[in-house]
């Protein structure tokens, strides 16, 4: 099973993915988290210490250029580069969860980083096609990733929205693009929901009832501020996480 999560920036998608990963593991699943956000935070969210030692693969430009087979001055590169040995080499582990930080190629002048992105897409595809694991992919905020092929192979997309019109507009745009990309199962997840009015707003604005609604939990914010894994406050949102788990496993 391959599950991606997306949404407008700041809606809590990384937190929800970490909580889902923890509950999946408690239910006997082998979980691999992939942080594909250009500003990765999953390591801190699940409680990995010394995160500054983790170098996103996307920042290893020399390695990526070498794997792409591109030579200086040449417009040609391999479209099917070798990536198998990168899978284990760049994983870190915490409490049974495995994490790989991809990051994203970014160029200050807006130039093309096609060879490097080819390696990242190839690596991501290999990971997403691994049949023996639950792969949870934390995408970058917004909609741009849907046009880059980095979500290829996902079985399901979870789109997180909070009770705000701007968040709903982004969520609806993500759904439209995801449908065009051929993702078979797409669900909305509500977050920072304080009361029934918030839940009703999301249901009406999104045009469907969210698969799960996570409450606005102060315990989650306090854990994050203290540098503790959000799973330390998992009990506060256990009902919503369990509802989401049942939804993705149905």
What can you tell me about this protein's structure?
It is a single chain. The longest helix has 16 residues, at 165-180. 43% of the residues are buried. The protein has an eight-stranded mixed beta sheet, sandwiched between helices. Strand 3 and strand 4 (97-101) form a beta hairpin. It has helices at residues 13-26, 42-45, 61-68, 86-89, 114-128, 165-180, 196-206, 218-225, 238-249, and strands at 2-7, 31-35, 91-94, 97-101, 134-138, 156-161, 185-193, 212-215. Helix 1 (13-26) crosses helix 9 (238-249) and helix 3 (61-68) packs across helix 5 (114-128). The protein has one domain: Rossmann fold (3-Layer(aba) Sandwich), CATH 3.40.50.300. By secondary structure, it is α/β, with parallel strands linked by helices.
Q: What is the assigned CATH homologous superfamily?
A: P-loop containing nucleotide triphosphate hydrolases
How many helices does DSSP assign?
A: 9
Could you tell me the CATH topology label: Rossmann fold
Give the integer mean of the pLDDT values.
82
Q: Identify the CATH architecture.
A: 3-Layer(aba) Sandwich
Spans of at least 5 consecutive residues whose pLDDT stays below 50 are 107-111
Strand content: 15-25%
User: How is the main sheet built?
Assistant: 8 strands, mixed
Provide the domain count.
1
Kindly state the percentage of residues in helix.
Answer: 25-40%
Specify Rg, calculated over alpha carbons.
Answer: 18 Å
Record field, number of beta strands: 8
Structural class: alpha/beta
Written as H for each helix and E for each strand, in order along the chain, the element string is: EHEHHHEEHEEHEHEHH
Distance between the termini: 12 Å
Strand neighbour order, sheet with most strands? 3-4-2-5-1-6-7-8
CATH domain class name: Alpha Beta
Shape: globular
